[in-house]
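Reviewer 2 asked us to include a model.

Predict the structure of this chain.
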Amino acid sequence: MREEFNQGLIDFLKASPTPFHATAALAQRLQAAGFRHLDERAPWHTEAGGRYYVTRNDSSIIAFKLGQRSPVEGGLRLVGAHTDSPCLRVKPHPELQRQGFFQLGVEVYGGALFAPWFDRDLSLAGRVTFRESGKVQSQLIDFQTPIAVIPNLAIHLNREANQGWAINAQTELPPILAQLTGSEAADFRALLADQLASEHGLSADAVLDYELSFYDTQAAAVIGLNRDFIAGARLDNLLSCYAGLQALLAAPDAESCVLVCNDHEEVGSTSACGADGPMLEQVLRRVLPDGDAFVRCIQRSLLVSADNAHALHPNYPDKHDENHGPKLNAGPVIKINSNQRYATNSETAGFFRHLCLENEVPVQSFVTRSDMGCGSTIGPLTAGHLGVRTVDIGLPTFAMHSIRELAGSHDLAHLVKVLTAFYTSPELP
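Predicted model (structure tokens):
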């Protein structure tokens, strides 16, 4: 089963170079499992035992099963994750022609590690809005093949490179796409029109706008002398999205279960489809009873916010509290912060730990060093909007926010197992 989950994750990562593609891949798998798409612009008719999903902005998705037991009596079992990852986004007027090369200006999305983007075989994917026969529409595109690279400067020309240098995002990160000849002019929108035609058979009168990101074409893989690791792009946090999906599909239909995968976590979550926006509450209010019953339901519910945790790196052990250094392949991590950067409390942590013990899943704890700042995730934001009890957890990883991250090859199966048990649990604390 472990190998099956790992290969499924690798396939999912390949299909999901952007949040738009990740959402489409999740929706495709949900539809194949009998979930019905709900259009936010149309009336909804839901019933006990039904399976449904909703998307917004093509980049966030909420899937839910309505159990045979009323959610007002049994509560909701919610798992939350996010679809976005740090990357390089193409600017609106990106064409750069310098020294005979065609380059694209890029904007950094989220807290990316810059150095790993150099010398990688890059492709481009995302959403394009265009006009065809007078009608404005949007379409996802993915060039798939390597079309760009950001070459490093040779050590001979930058003798201080190994002593560290500040990478300038404006001048040093524009990828090279081609070498131009003579008076040849670069036209990025024409390139996108050609891609729409070749990939989807569409004839765009005009490319109006786009949201496009570069990504590394090297496929994710199980690696290591003993195949101990999964290496790949966007493990933060598509790994959690995939684990939540597998758990939702495996859970029986007795209880009401929700999977929410929001966009924009890496940039603060404040958007119409982010965790600091109204999407989840609006969806739940359309499904659950109003007023007093809604509050009763939420207060009987629990959210497991799943986002990757920092594993103890053997080259940098002093970056962790000595008693709270999560290890790869040692199970999911309960994330705790007394300043509410994580929404975990003793009751929710205790319940998650109980689930792990009952299902023979190893479990760990993470608290950041007292002299270091702490990141955050969707847990506190969702808890703040809904008033739902929350535990923040995640699988330990190395190189978070790099173009290629590393996780343990045993841990995905651990996470799927405990999340399935959570969705199945007849009683919440």
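The radius of gyration is 22 Å. The first strand starts at residue 36 and ends at 37. We have added this to the supplementary material.
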